[in-house]
## 1
Amino acid sequence: MKLERVELLHVALPLVTPFRTSFGTMTSKDTFLLHVVTDEAEGWSEFAADPEPLYCSEFVAGAEIVIRDFLLPRVAALPEPTTAAVAPAMASVKGHELAKAALETALLDAELRAYGMSLATFLGSVHERVPAGVSVGIKNSVPELLDDVERYLAEGYIRIKLKIEPGWDVEPVRAVRERFGDQLPLQVDANTAYTLADAEHLRKLDDFGLLLIEEPLEENNIHAHAQLQRRLATPVCLDESIHSARDAASAIAMDACRVVNVKPARVGGYPQARRIHDVAAAHGVPVWCGGMLETGIGRAPNLALAALPGFTLPGDTSASSRYFAEDITEPFVLQDGHLPVPTAPGIGIDPLPDALARFTTATRELYA
Ligand code: OSB
Ligand code: MG
């Protein structure tokens, strides 16, 4: 497989409703797609982070430079940019897992298309469809939140995740439990908004039978999460703090988390995400597939990952309509609370030329 061209397309898609978390409010998905052309096949990927480094340290403009100036030259120097060779070639560049994942995934897509193999088959996925949860942002009032949750449940979502922050935690959780009952699979995500000094307050959440509390404390502070887990009955789940299978192994060994949110981009790509799945499965720790409000280009490969056997909890892999009035690909549609796992070669989906043209705000030739 010879690399012939790499193109970066900035895209902007309006969200159907603003998404508020403890770190900020998003009203559109602004990111870039990578399009690689080889002598055998083409590949696509989506950069998962945002224009501002609020969820993680990486951001759109920075990732473009990292890919253009540091990652792509190393990959282009390889005799063949195969998936097995690409990650080692990029390893000397420190960090930047999301940028690395974008480049690796586009090349993996091209390689799998050349073989005629789906990503799901490559990863070892075992399900044809995966259960869909939905991540519900912070609202201005509890009645507004209850309306949103009611609508998502009516659409068929089988698990609800509430974004929380200090001042928006026990009250909304109690209201959702009272309204929708104890059987509703319910979890919360704080996106690092608390400190250990809040442990007694967070313990109040133990009354509500939550599946998990996601990333309550500061990013990368695995020790503090272990101290918190000792004081909580609710399982701690790590998101921001896990960047690799090694991190997952450390966190599990320290009992800093009893569940792991696997976002392939956050850990440098699909092969590394598979390793986290394997490490967690070996310890009996359930994992689930997180999301970053992806377009169809990022959602398709996440669905393949979510179909691995250790993904025993519903993911944040919601239908396209939860995010966008119009997606850049054919939309993923909820059926019976599930989304289909793509079966076509590679990530199994392509941008629709017309939608791509309308959502693209700038195009850069990175390699030719
Ligand atoms: O912390 O899981 C998160 C969205 C953007 C950035 C971080 C997170 C999220 C979500 C939504 O919770 C997940 C999704 O629906 O894609
Ligand atoms: Mg999270």
## 2
Amino acid sequence: MTVPDPRPAMRVDVVSIFPDYLSPLDLSLIGKARADGLLDVRVHDLRDFTHDRHRTVDDTPYGGGAGMVMKPQPWSEALDHVVAQGHSGAKPRLIVPGPGGQRFTQTLARELAREPWLAFACGRYEGIDERVYDHAREDLGLEVSVVSLGDYVLNGGEVAVLAMVEAVGRLVPGVIGNAESLVEESHEDGLLEYPIYTKPASWNGREVPPVLLSGNHGAIAAWRHEQRRARTAARRPDLLHASHGVDGTDVEITAATPADVPELALLMRACWVQEAVANDTLDIPALHESLDDVRESLETTQTWVARSGGRLVGAVRTVRTEPDGDDWFIGRLCVAPDLQGRGLGRRLLEHAESTAPDGIRTFTLNTGARSADNLRMYKKAGYRLVDVPAPIPGAVTLVKRRRG
Ligand code: 6GU
């Protein structure tokens, strides 16, 4: 038997003129977490803090305009009451739901789940007198956040509080038994979830995708990842970070300009640190290129940059080996570490070859003798190791004849 922790993991206070609106917090997982003592949720009626016969909470706006404004006095007394219940200086973080706030996201839900105490102030009508926010911040010393569920208007904050308490509460340790189910979810890593199926395998003439019945876990993982990517692209392209969509085909290759230099230098440093590790040496000229070196190289070579979704994801440089020679040198071919192995390097290589002027008969490049992935890609692209000493220790030279 487990002994319940005497202190709940999180306390939540909600102030509203419709306390009954929050009764769903007694149900389901959140209700169980309350019963188990993991969440201490207390709902307060704002009208209990009025002093007139009609229990008035609103009045007309100064300066005119539509609708009514929530009066400062009941709100300040309600917040004072909530804060007074804290022990030894503890204070809640105050969340005011409203369409004018910062967006409520999984990231914010995670942040709020780390707070020991949250207080929600549900506004109605056009909102709460601005001085209530000042009172909360300046007199009570609360951190105040206005938070919106999305770009649409609700009649009040109560529905939003239900959503936020559910999203935050389920992240509080112990509320959900299987912590793994928290990880494999839409939004947890920036992509939407893959489609899911259960028995029977054939239902009303509709089949479960065969790969899921194959028992091939690698194939299943690859299929699910592709489903997530495609679904996110279709439904929420705004979520699709460059790194998820890039497959070597949706990149744009353009001539590098001085504006590319800072990003280019950073990308090159990242790529050549990787090379330094693979080849166990710091003696690689590319690794030591400074910002100024990269800037100057734009004048002495033709540099190309690959961008995807605005992000610089690869680069390559070309130069005629001898002023009037027939060899085209391809150098500094690099691809962002998270995007390697998707064909982008090959595309940059083909681009570098395609820009060679008439009279070029061979392509030459260098790479680390132990840079296995690079060597494999270059050989597949038709390059052959040649017995020419490379200009750099530990490097090898590869050559390819131009076709036609
Ligand atoms: Cl948090 N409150 C209200 N009143 N309307 C909203 C909202 C919140 N989020 C979107 N619309």
